[in-house]
């Protein structure tokens, strides 16, 4: 709370430092501090944990697994969404790699739920609990290498959504 009040004084200085009545000033301080504490709590939430690995299928063929484990009460949006979707769909980007050939599209393994918000006339396709994103790749040569990339995703509850997030990953192919 002390830090919040110091931040409030800095913000007041930056915005002209107008003198208000003590009652109005105290209400603004409390409101500002509550907003700051709420923002910190929301930012600190990480309701999704990611696990990355490669499964060797044959001599030069691998499945890349990017598994999201989602906390109870939260959902993660799928890669594909209906036209009237308003959130951020999950997007997986692999870095270019001269030794790899990507086979097909990224598959989603999990229980896909289709949700509809009648009052807003919007739909979303999402996963609760967990989803495994799987991409099959073939090595051009028998070598050990890594594949890296990023995942952009958004998670929500029935009451709120967090800002979209990006995580980077690197997976060894051995």
Short description:
With 174 residues, the protein is an alpha+beta fold. It has two helices and eleven strands; from the N terminus they run ααβββββββββββ.
How do the helices and strands line up, and which of them pair or pack?
Blueprint: H1 2-14, H2 22-44, E1 48-56, E2 61-70, E3 75-77, E4 91-94, E5 100-109, E6 112-117, E7 122-127, E8 130-139, E9 145-153, E10 155-156, E11 165-173
Antiparallel strand pairs: 1-2, 2-8, 3-7, 3-10, 4-9, 5-8, 6-7, 9-11
Briefly note the structural class of the backbone: alpha+beta
Q: What's the architecture of the largest domain in CATH terms? A: Sandwich
Largest sheet data? 4 strands, antiparallel
- What is the general shape? elongated
Strand segment tally: 11
Can you put this structure into words, describing what you see?
The chain has 174 residues and is of the alpha+beta class. The protein has helices spanning 2-14, 22-44; strands spanning 48-56, 61-70, 75-77, 91-94, 100-109, 112-117, 122-127, 130-139, 145-153, 155-156, 165-173. It has 2 domains: 2-44; 48-173, Thiol:disulfide interchange protein DsbD, N-terminal domain (Immunoglobulin-like, Sandwich), CATH 2.60.40.1250. The protein is built from 2 helices and 11 strands. The strands form 3 sheets. A 4-stranded antiparallel β-sheet has the order 1-2-8-5, with no helix packed on it. A hairpin with a 4-residue loop joins strand 6 and strand 7. The termini are far apart.
